[in-house]
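Need tokens for this chain, all 408 residues.
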Amino acid sequence: MSDVTAWPDQWTERWINDRLVPLKRRRMFAARTMLLSFLIASIASGPLRFSGHGRGLASLILTVLCATGWLVWAIGVYMAPERIGEPAVIVALVLYGTAGSVLTGLKLPTEAVIFPSVAIVSAGIRFTWRQSLAAPIVSSAIMLLTAWLSHANMGAGIGYAGLLFGTYGLGLGRRAQILRAETAERLLTETRRANNEQAHAAALAERSRIAREIHDVLAHSLSALTVQLEAADALLTNGTDLVKAHGYVVKARHIAREGLTETRRAIAALREDTPPLRSMLHGLAEAYEAYTGASATVIADCEPTDLQPDATLALYRTAQESLTNARKHAPGAPIEITLTCDESAAVLTVTNQAASAPTTALASSGGGYGLAGLKERAELAGGAFEAGPWHGGWRVQLRIPSRPRPSP
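Here are the structure tokens for all 408 residues:
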């Protein structure tokens, strides 16, 4: 009966979307119609029969009013709420509830008490207890006053008044049950929406993470590879210096192999299978020395253990980007990579001196997202990123706090 508390537009939408509701409402309407027929037959065969004058005529009129209100209520709730409308249903409840109370007072004891009882239950379901409390009070007063004026059995009347208040309690209980169900349904809907939004945010974060990996791995390797191959192609086309052209091809092959290695490392990082940071930093330094001929010193006496895999990867990518930028903008500059660890944080510092060779076409390669990507990585890992000039060269520093250790 949760549809009893809804407005007609909500009833219509629900019944259109739910294929089982039409069968259910037809059954409910048929049951209410059969109950109405039973009530009319019982009242007509009672001690106060219908007649053309006096109390018999009043009983007939009241029964017709009860039947009319009952039918309007049943049709409006179970058959055609979009046509009957909520106001008409409320008027029907008041009609057969009031007429049933008078009829009950005239014919004590009688089955007519079902009319005000059902009206009171419906009022308790539809409205709050303060709004619907008038229903049992008014119905009981009307019934008792009618019984007193018609010299009916007042003892039965008082008992029936208690019955009306009991049915009122049933209506309030049903209303509370409906409200709990609706609250649970809303919470379930909100939970599903929150889960969908969380999944969407996680997907966006994963896309951003993959985009950063693509930039850090492929952008550098492919841009450097392009420069080397273009230089070799120019020399081979002119036929001026085949030995130098061969050197460019060798460097391009070395860059390609380095790119494959970095790709494997990126895949391992995406799977959260990150190798030890110190070994990766030494690998970067060796590659830098082999490519540029300049020195690269690694000072790392510790291995961060209280960091998330993403935080360890952020430290590595910071060192990698710093070496790539030094190779682009400060050719031949010596590099120093320092990694320090304590209980509170891990700090990576990469410092390069001024360039000792002229810049090449490699300086104009890349999309310019390197430092921005490093800052984004630092923020996601909860760290602090700094980059800027340093004693005639350049310094990059990343500090990432350690994870809190569980208390013993």
